[in-house]
Structures are given as C-alpha cells and as structure tokens.
Amino acid sequence: MSGGRWFRVRVIGGSARSLQLQCPRGLRIRPTADIIRETLFNSLGPQVHGAVFCDLYAGCGSVGIEGASRGASSVVFIERTRLGAETIEANAAHCGVSEICSVIRGDVLSRYANAAQRFGPFDIVFADPPYGMEELAEITRRLLAGEGLAECATVVLQYPGRQELPGVPEPDRVKQFGETELAFFYLEPPGEE
C-alpha cells in the first residue's frame, strides 16, 4: 500500500485482474487485504459466476469489484460515506464493470431491505462492518432469516476473530487470518437441513 491519501489495492482475478483500485485513507475505510479476498473467492469458487452479489459496508468496493471481475451478473454496494460511494463508482468505471454495479449510499441497516427488494434476491452477501459487533449481529440475524436472499445463498462475514455474535448460530466454515476471521454461512432451501 502506498502512502499519501490513498491505499492502493489490486484486483486479484478475472477480467480486471491486476488493475489498481483507489481506497481513501482517513475515513475508517479498511480495504480487505489481498490474501483475505483471494481466500474468499477461492472458497466461493464457481458460485460467483452469474451470481447476484451484495457488498455491505463496501468501503472502496474492493470485494464487490472482485466479484464483478470474476463473473458476477450484478453487484450491489451499500456504503455509508459519500467519498466511499464515489470511490466505488470510480473504481467500477476504471475496471470496466460499471454497467453491472449499483451503489447505494446510506446505512446498511436502513438501506438493505430496499436494496434487496430492488436488486435481489442475492446469491452472495459479504459484510465487513467498521462499526461495532452489535450492528454486525443484527444484520447477520436478518440475513440468516433469509431476508433478501436466494434459496441457497452464501453469507460471508469478516470481523475480528474470537468474538461472539449474540443470537447468531455458529458459522458453517471459518477461515482465520491472524486476528481476522471470515465466517461462511450456507443457507439451505426450505425443508433441508
């Protein structure tokens, strides 16, 4: 990552492979590290191709743009900050994926239901909130109840490891990166367990 006003992040795979994304410093935006994004997309594998992808707490959009680059049919980003939303739009244009990307500016808890109604159901949802674990627990409970999701959706959370999410079941799979965890939840069609 370079110094100055921007983090430099690259797209790892797909049609925009090796292109650089800009991520502004100083607005509590933490771009997901390359190794974590690579592990995420290797774990999702071919499920990404043709998926309707949602990137919550999107920051500079590195995860959703990676999904678009790897063949998602559409990507919805929800980002609270104006600079973050503008950066996502610029990064999507730079990577040639603007036509399949929609950026919603606002709070995830208040904007998710509308986004799901307009653009869902989502096949894959990724959430990496910069806020407290209480907010992550709330949106996760809503997602695991099936809100705005396709029948066999995957929900992936990135958060500081070794923390409990009140009212959230254990994930189906966990990948550990030092103090950071990726937690995977696989939703089953109704009637299957």
The CATH class is identified as Alpha Beta
What would CATH call the architecture?
3-Layer(aba) Sandwich
Mean pLDDT: 88
Q: What's the shape?
A: globular
What is the radius of gyration?
A: 15 Å
Main sheet properties:
7 strands, mixed
Beta-strand portion reads 25-35%
Return the string of H and E elements. EEHEHEHEHEHEEE
Number of helical regions:
5
Q: Give the N-to-C terminal Cα separation.
A: 43 Å
Structural class: alpha/beta
Helical residue percent? 25-40%
Superfamily (CATH H level) name: Vaccinia Virus protein VP39
Any idea how many domains?
1
- DSSP summary, beta strand count: 9
Which fold name is given in CATH as the topology? Answer: Rossmann fold
Strand order of the largest sheet: 5-4-3-6-7-9-8
Outline the structure in words:
The model has no long low-confidence stretch (mean pLDDT 88). The longest helix is centred in the middle third of the chain and has 13 residues, at 82-94. The chain has 5 helices and 9 strands; from the N terminus they run ββαβαβαβαβαβββ. It has a 7-stranded mixed beta sheet with strand order 5-4-3-6-7-9-8, with helices on both faces. It has helices spanning 34-44, 62-69, 82-94, 108-119, 133-144; strands at 6-10, 20-24, 52-56, 74-79, 101-105, 122-127, 149-160, 173-177, 180-186. Strand 8 (173-177) and strand 9 (180-186) form a beta hairpin. Helices cover 29% and strands 29% of the residues. The termini are far apart. It is of the alpha/beta class and 193 residues long. It has a single domain (6-186), classed as Vaccinia Virus protein VP39 (Rossmann fold).
